[in-house]
Structure formats: C-alpha cells, structure tokens
Amino acid sequence: MRGEDGLFEIEPVEVKRTPGRPAAVDKTFRTFDPHQVLLLPPSLDDWLPEGHLARFVADLVDEVLDLSPILADYTEKRGYPPYDPRLMVRLLIYGYTTGVRSSRAIERKCSDDVAFRFLAADQTPDFRSIARFRRRHLDALADLFTQSLHLATKLGMVKMGRVALDGTKLEANASKHKAMSYGRLIDKEEQVEAEIAALEAKAAALLADAEATDEAEDATFGVDGKDMDLPAELDRREKRLARLQAARAQIEAEAADKARRHAEDKERRRRQRTGTNDQQAVIDAGEAAAAKARPKPKAQANFTDPDSRIMKNSDGAYIQAYNAQAVVDEALQVITAADVMTNASDALNYTTMLDQSAQNTGRHPKQALVDAGYCSETNLEAARERQLACGTDTFMATGRLGHDEQVQPAPRGRIPKDATLKERMARKLRTKPGRKAYSRRKAIVEPVFGQITTCQNGRQLLLRGEDGARGEWRLLAACHNLRKIFRHAGTAGIAALAG
Q: Tell me, what DSSP letter sits at residue 9?
C-alpha cells in the first residue's frame, strides 16, 4: 500500500480493541497501558499515602530510636557489606506490628507488599539475613520496649494512676509430644545404656575380625575408615543418651531449686515469728531440702526447647508454652513491664513485675489490680509492705467467682483483729471502692493480650530458649506500644519527639 503522495510504503495497522462487552456510549476512558516504560525513576515517597503506618515506622527508626547498641556490634571491616541495620529494624518493627513475623514471610513481603518495599527501599534481604540479624541483635531489639515506653511517657500517654498485672501462656516453638517425663527418662536411659553396651561388644568383635584381613576392615569401616571408628548406630545412641542425661539433670536441678526456695522461705518466716535473724540457718535449711529433693515421676523436659514447659492455657488445653507477664497502664493501655517465666504459676511474679514497672517508668502506680492467680500469703504480705513503702494500693482477688456469681457486699462493722491478710483483702474487694476498682482489671489488660494475639499474630513464639522467648515477647510489647503511639500521636508525635 502506498501513501497519498506515493513516496513511501505504509503498512496496514490493526486497531487493538478492548475485549469484552463494548461500552454503551462513545465513552473516553483514562489512559491505561500496563506496558508503559517509565521515563523517570519512580519515587518511593509516592508509593504510600500520608499517615500510613509504614511512614511512621520509617520516621521512627531514622529519627527517634537509638540504634547505637546494634551499630556498635559491627567491629569487623572485612567481609561482604551487610544490610543497613536501619533497613532490618524497619522491617522487623513493621512486621511484628502487623503480624508478619516469620523471616520467610518478611522476605516475600519485600517483593509483594508496597509498604515493605517502601521500608526496604526496594531491596529484598533473604530470610537467612533477617533471621540472623534478629538472633544476633535480640537483646538490642528487646531494649526497644524500654525506648517505646519512654517515648509514650514523653507524649503523656503513661499516667501510672492504675495498672493491671496479668499473665498469658504463649505457645513455644516446640511440640509437647517431644517431651518426656522423669520416670520414663530413667527407664529410657537404662534401655539406651544397655543398647550401647551391646553395640560396643559388637563393635569390639568386628574390630577383632577386621585385624585378620584388610578386606574385612574395609567392608566394616569403609576404605578410609580407621580401626578406632565407632559404627554410626553406636554414635547415634551415645548422642541420644547424652540428651536423655541432660534432660534428667535439668529436671533434678529444677526440683532441687524448688525445694531450696520453699525451705528457705519457710525457715525465714519461722525466724521472723520468733524474732531471730539467722541467715546462715536459712541457707542451711535450703541446702538440706535441696539434697533430699526428688523430682516427681510426671515432671517433664522437652528435647526441642528444654526451657519451655507444659502449661494449661485459658481454653483448658495443655500446651508447650512460656508464661508471658505484662503490666499495663490504664490510660491508653501502654505496657510498662514485660517478662517471660518458665513457671506456669503467676504467684512468683507479683513483686518482680511491679518493681520492673516502677524501674521502667520511674514511678510507682497508685493502684495495682491482680487476679487470683497471684494470691498467696507471701504476696499479700508484700502488698501490705508495698502500700506502706510506695503508696501502691493493691487489689488482689482471693478466689475465682463461679459462673454468674455476684460479689457479696462487705459485712458492716469493724474488721476483726484476728482477721488474716487473705480475709482482709477479701473484705476490701467487697467494699464499693474495691468492687469499682477491681472491675477495671479485665478492661485494662485483657484487650492488650487480645491485640497482641490477633493483630500481631503473637500466639506462638518463633525463637527457642528462655532468653529467645523473653526477647521476642519484649519486641512484641514494644511494637504494641509503638502502635499505640501511632494511633495517639501519629507522625506529628514523631516530629515532636525528633525535635
């Protein structure tokens, strides 16, 4: 085909039409060309709307948070350049805030999710780099909890008028089917020792036969094998025996430590009643009890995560777990103290958690609300001393109410002089001020656990060991506080803190 002037050839072009049903009218649509090449590089600043959580995290990491403990850990100049710590902290904070905690999931998000690509400046660190960074700098990442609390305090979000203390069971990264009881450990240890003895006798016979000819030796141990090598089956059983013995030693040490603490506490109270103060006698009583202590046959140890324990959760199910503790301020549900325990009972954590809260904030609360799990003679005595020393008025439930059971009003008249601490606390909670104050406990702390479980996908821990569990729980608590700061102050609050 020739043009109108016949000077050049024109090839026919087929007009592309949009497939599907044609428009009812001759309508002009906005330009849409998925294959259009950008003439200029895209700006990361155009990827997200103003006020997005990812922008808040970026400003927080770049301008407010102190990352010097992480940076100080890089002392070697040689080697391939690592990812910028700011990038990794951005990804971990945003991931733990939005429920994306797995290192593999974060790696996928850096390719698929606009917010993660914005925070990573379009880089894609692999999951091994993310996991190694988290494990290497876990203590510094856990310290972000204290930094988040200080930021919330500067913004006036922490009042310390009334706090609630509670615990929740977090699933460990281990199966409860990988645990073994103390009684079964002893039986299994004897069985493996007998198997090792039989295999050693068999190995000795093989070695004697191998000395006759080189061919027999090569057939038994391989061409490059040595006459002192043990068969693989024997080596495997010896390693298994070592794990069994370590688990047994752990259970025995825990039983001795528990007996020691109980005996020391009992002897200390006895000395106080008699008016004597002999610390050496307290220590001797503890050592004597520890020497006689024997674990219960059903006491268990887990081979995957030896620090975790079988615990009963709120649904009544028994899981391999850690006991996560938190103190929450009433004003805006900011967490003021966070820790992880290997003991399923909450009673051991009353004093330590309130002390940690006071240390983190620099103030003691006016009121502390705790449930019946913390009620013990020791804690009731500590609550009375805390009120005298710090002015903290504790409301501690002395028992659980049945379904639809109502709290009875306090009896009229004076409190009997011979009333025990438990009876006095129960009477205190039945007064109008006591019922009004304690009714706030669930509304303060329970939503926090719910938000961490659902919004942050924090039902199960990813890191193993008590130190790993504690670091990850505090990182979850830090991200909870940062989300509260974002909701309360937004990027304007970050600008004020940075200024």
A: B
Full 3-state SS string of 325-357: EEEEECCCCCEEEEEEECCCCCHHHHHHHHHHH
User: How many Cα atoms occupy the beta-carbon half-sphere of 180 within 13 Å?
Assistant: 18
How does DSSP assign 122-174, residue by residue?
T----HHHHHHHHHHTHHHHHTHHHHHHHHHHHTT----SEEEEEEEEEEPSS
Written in H, E and C, the secondary structure of 59-125 is HHHHHHCCCHHHHCCCCCCCCCCCCCHHHHHHHHHHHHHHCCCCHHHHHHHHHHCHHHHHHCCCCCC
294 and 186 within one domain: yes
Backbone angle region of 183, left / alpha / beta, with phi > 0 → left and psi within -120 to 50 → alpha: alpha
Query: Cα dist. 350→71, 372, 477 in Å?
Result: 36, 11, 19
Taken as a whole, the chain contains a residue count of 499
Is the CB of residue 466 less than 8 Å from the CB of residue 307? yes
Q: Which of 239, 448, 443 is nearest to 325 (CA)?
A: 448
Query: At a CB cut-off of 8 Å and minimum separation 6, what does 376 contact?
Result: 347
Does residue 486 belong to any structural domain of this protein? no
284-307 pLDDT per residue, tens: 888 887 787 777 776 677 778 889
pLDDT at residue number 221: 52
Query: Which residues span the domain enclosing 333?
Result: 159-175+308-465
- The continuous run of DSSP H or E covering 318 comes out as strand 318-329
pTM of the model: 0.79
According to DSSP, the β-strands at 318-329 and 162-171 are: antiparallel
413: CATH: 3.30.420
The answer to whether the beta carbons of residues 425 and 380 sit under 8 Å apart is yes
* CA–CA distance, 257 with 41 (Å, rounded to integer): 64
Residue 57 main-chain phi, psi, to 5 deg: -65, -40
- Residues 264, 188 share a domain: yes
Number of domains in the chain: 3
Helix (H, G, I), strand (E, B) or coil at 307: coil
- From residue 379, give the alpha-carbon distance in Å to each of 276, 327, 388, 423, 424: 22, 16, 14, 14, 13
Mean pLDDT by 10 residues, the chain (499 residues): 52 51 69 75 83 94 94 86 94 97 96 94 94 96 96 94 96 84 65 67 66 55 50 67 70 75 79 78 81 75 85 89 96 96 92 96 96 93 94 91 61 78 90 91 96 95 95 97 92 71
Number of Cβ atoms within 10 Å of the Cβ of 289: 19
Sign of CA dihedral 116, 118, 124, 125: negative
